[in-house]
C-alpha cells in the first residue's frame, strides 16, 4: 500500500501542479472564460487513464496463466522504463516546466478552443498514462488489487490537497528536494517491480532460473508477517528471490540511483576567442 501511495503522491502531484499552473496563468491574465476548456481536457485525460487501467485488467483476465505471467512481466518492464524516464525528466525540467506550460497554453489559446482542450489533455494525460501502467504493474507485484488501490487513491488525494494549498499560497514546498527524495524512493520501488517482472517472465518459461534461488529467508521474514507485508508493499521484497531477480534488482539500483544522485552538469558559457589587433 505504501509503495502505491508514493506512486499516487508523486504522479498525482506532478499532474496537479500542471493543472494549477494552467489555472493560475489563465486567472492572472484575465482569461477565466478558457478555464472550462482546460477542465474538459483534464477530464478527458483522467477518463483515458482509467480506461487504460481497466483495459489492462480485462486483457490479463482473458489470458491463460502462462500468457498472464508474460503479459505482467512485459508491463512491469515498460512501467519501470516509464518511471525511470519520469524521475530524470522531472529533475531536469522542474525549474522550467512552469514557463514551458504557459507558453504552450498561450499558443493553444491563439489556435482556438479545441487546441486548448487537446493541450490540457496531453499535459495531464502523459502523467495519467504513466500512472496507469505503473499502478497496474505495482498491483500485480503486490498480488492483490484492494490495498494497492487504497494506497494509490490516498496518495492522489494528498497530492491534490498539496497542490491546492500551494496554489493558494498556504504551503511552500521545496519542489527540488521533494522530487529528489521521492525520486530516490521510487528507484527502490521500481527495482522491486522490475525484479518481480523478471519473476513473471521466469514463471512464463520465457526466462530460465525459476528454481535457482539467491536466498530464502521465509523463516526469518514470513510473507504474512507485518514486516514481511511492509517490505512487500513498499519494495516488492520477496523472501524467496531467484538469482536473476537479485541480479536485476542490484544492477538497477546501482546504476539508476548512482546516476540520479550525481550532480547535474550545468552548461558552461563558451569563452570568446581573444581578439587580435
TrEMBL record:
The keyword Membrane applies. Pfam families: FTR1. Its main location: membrane. It is a multi-pass membrane protein. Signal peptide: none annotated. It comes from the Bacteria. Keywords: Membrane, Transmembrane, Transmembrane helix. The chain crosses the membrane at residues 6-26, 38-58, 70-90, 111-129, 149-167, 179-198, 246-262. It is found in: Membrane. Belongs to the oxidase-dependent Fe transporter (OFeT) (TC 9.A.10.1) family. This is FTR1 family protein. It comes from Pseudonocardia alaniniphila. The lineage of its organism: Bacteria, Bacillati, Actinomycetota, Actinomycetes, Pseudonocardiales.
Amino acid at each position: 500500500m505504501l509503495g502505491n501511495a508514493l506512486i499516487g503522491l508523486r504522479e498525482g502531484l506532478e499532474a496537479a501542479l500542471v493543472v494549477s499552473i494552467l489555472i493560475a496563468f489563465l486567472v492572472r491574465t484575465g482569461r477565466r472564460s478558457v478555464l472550462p476548456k482546460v477542465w474538459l481536457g483534464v477530464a478527458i485525460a483522467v477518463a483515458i487513464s482509467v480506461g487504460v487501467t481497466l483495459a489492462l485488467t480485462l486483457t490479463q483476465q482473458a489470458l491463460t496463466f502462462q500468457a498472464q505471467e508474460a503479459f505482467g512481466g512485459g508491463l512491469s518492464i515498460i512501467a519501470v522504463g516509464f518511471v525511470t524516464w519520469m524521475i530524470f525528466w522531472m529533475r531536469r525540467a522542474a525549474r522550467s516546466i512552469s514557463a514551458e506550460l504557459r507558453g504552450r497554453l498561450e499558443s493553444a489559446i491563439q489556435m482556438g478552443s479545441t487546441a486548448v482542450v487537446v493541450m490540457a489533455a496531453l499535459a495531464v494525460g502523459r502523467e495519467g498514462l504513466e500512472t496507469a501502467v505503473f499502478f497496474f504493474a505495482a498491483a500485480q507485484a503486490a498480488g492483490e488489487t484492494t490495498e494497492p488501490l487504497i494506497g494509490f487513491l490516498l496518495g492522489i488525494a494528498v497530492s491534490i490537497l498539496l497542490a491546492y494549498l500551494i496554489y493558494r499560497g498556504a504551503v511552500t514546498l521545496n519542489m527540488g528536494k521533494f522530487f529528489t527524495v521521492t525520486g530516490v524512493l521510487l528507484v527502490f520501488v521500481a527495482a522491486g517491480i522490475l525484479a518481480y517482472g523478471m519473476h513473471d517472465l521466469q514463471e512464463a518459461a520465457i526466462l530460465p532460473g525459476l528454481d535457482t534461488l539467491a536466498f530464502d529467508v521465509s523463516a526469518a521474514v514470513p510473507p504474512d508477517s507485518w514486516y514481511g507485508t511492509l517490505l512487500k508493499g513498499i519494495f516488492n521484497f520477496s523472501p524467496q528471490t531467484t538469482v536473476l531477480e537479485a541480479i536485476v534488482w542490484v544492477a538497477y539500483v546501482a546504476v539508476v540511483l548512482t546516476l540520479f544522485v550525481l550532480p547535474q552538469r550545468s552548461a558552461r558559457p563558451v569563452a570568446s576567442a581573444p581578439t587580435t589587433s
